[in-house]
Each structure stands twice: as structure tokens, then as C-alpha cells.
Amino acid sequence: MFDLEQYIQEKCKAVDAHLDSILPPEDLVPIELHRAMRYSVFPGGKRLRPVICLAAAEAVAGDGSNAMMSALALELLHTYTLIHDDLPCMDDDDLRRGKASSHKVFGEATAVLAGDALQALAFECIGRADSHSSSAGTLTLELASAAGSMGVVGGQVEDLASEDATPDRTVLERIHSRKTAALFVAAARMGGITAGASGAVLEGLTAYGRSVGRVFQLVDDILNVTSSTEELGKAVGNDAAKGKMTA
Question: Is 245 in a helix, a strand, or coil?
Fold first, then answer.
């Protein structure tokens, strides 16, 4: 019988091992920057995006090994967005993954630069993936599209602009699709692309990623009201306090 929890734990362990090998060591100059990068990556969260990437590749080809560098790229880019989201000029959150946010430990300037460096390393991972170099250009486009103005960055802009605004379902769904679901879509598609998926299979993976991303954000909105800081590892009740538009 398939054990989903065990599967996720095994994939997370593999992802963490590869992240540890690709991130610069803490004693490498500039030391403070590399410390900040590793601080935000480890210990990680649920690692859902890289797990979905690997699982999508396995679903298509039965082997997800070629998708590992894409999986790392997704997690590195995701972590960069978390660092920047927590900044005082953004969501101004002091907790992330059960510990102080990067800017509270290293200062705002280093936190910004650590996020920038993680984003650059994400694309470097794709460039290093010799085993599927023929698809590197396509994978780069997928990740860049998910990260840019029509993806995570655009979603964050609308999220900030919607504070204290009259709730609007169309606007909310667009925010969720860009800020959250875009990376889940990229995860499913990038895993499929590394395994040679095309046509209807890639469309199916796209729909799956979009649905999982939207559900993830809906649950996150609800937990911000019903859960506790100890359970989530981040502040709760702050969405309402900031007048954010949520589910």
C-alpha cells in the first residue's frame, strides 16, 4: 500500500541533501550572506513544490532523477519569495518556519541580498542540469514566468494593493493564482518536461498544479484565523490585522 507521508519524507530528505551540496558553505566569503541564505533554506518547510516536481516526473516516466535540479530551483526561488515577503516594506512578518525571519537576524539589506542570491542560484541549478540540457531553455522559461509580473511578483503587488479594499472574488482568485498557484503549476510542469511530457499530459499536470496551489492558499487563509503561531511556525491573525483580502 502506498504511504504518502513516507513518500514525502523520503523526497524531502533527498531534496535537503542536494540543497546542502549546492548552497555555498557558511564559511565562504561573503560569510554573512551565505549564512543568511542557509538560515532561510534550513530547516525547510514542507518542500511541497520540489516534491510535486519529482512526483510529476515519476508519473510521466517512472523516474524523477532528472528532475532534481528543477526541484532544487523551485525551492530556492520559493525561499527567496518568503524572505522578501517578510520584509517590513512588504508583509512585515517577524516569524517564518518557526524562527525569526531573515531580516530580524541579519538585517534588511542582507535579507534582500540573500533573497536575490537564492533566486540567481535557482536559475543556476537549471543551467547545471546536464542530464536534461535539451530542455533547459524551456525549464528556464517556466520558472521565470512563474516568478515574474504575471506570477509571484505580480501576485504580491496585488496582494499589497488590496489591503483594506472591498473584498472581490475575481481579484482574490487572481492573487491566489499568481502569488501561490503559479509556482505549483511550474513545479508540476517542470517535472513533466524533464520526463518528456507533452500535449495532454502536460495540460493535465498544469491543471493539477493550479488546483493544488489554490487549495493550498485557501487552507493557509483559513489557518491564519483558526490556528496558532506554534502550530504554523509563523504569525497568525495578521491577515485580518492588516486588512488583507483573503478567502
Answer: coil
Query: Cell triple for residue 123?
Result: 536559475
213-244 burial, b at 16+ Cβ within 10 Å, e below that, comes to: bbebbeebbeebeeeeeeeeebbbebbeeeeb
Unique residue bearing C-alpha cell 493564482:
177
Q: State the cell numbers at 35.
A: 549564512
CA dist 30 and 35 (Å) reads 9
Can you give the pLDDT at residue 198?
A: 87
> What is d(CA 170, CA 152) in angstroms, rounded to the nearest whole number?
17
What percentage of the chain exceeds 90 in pLDDT?
Answer: 85
11 phi/psi in degrees, rounded to 5: -65, -40
Collapsing DSSP to helix, strand or coil, 130 comes out as: helix
Q: DSSP 3-state assignment of 180?
A: helix
Instruction: Indicate if the alpha-carbon torsion angle 93, 91, 213, 113 is positive or negative.
Output: negative
pTM above 0.70, yes or no: yes
Q: Which residues of 99-132 are buried (b: 16+ CB within 10 A; e: fewer)?
A: eebbbbebeeebbbbbbebbbebbbebbeebeeb
Confidence of residue 130 (pLDDT cuts 50, 70, 90): low
What is d(CA 146, CA 186) in angstroms, rounded to the nearest whole number? 6
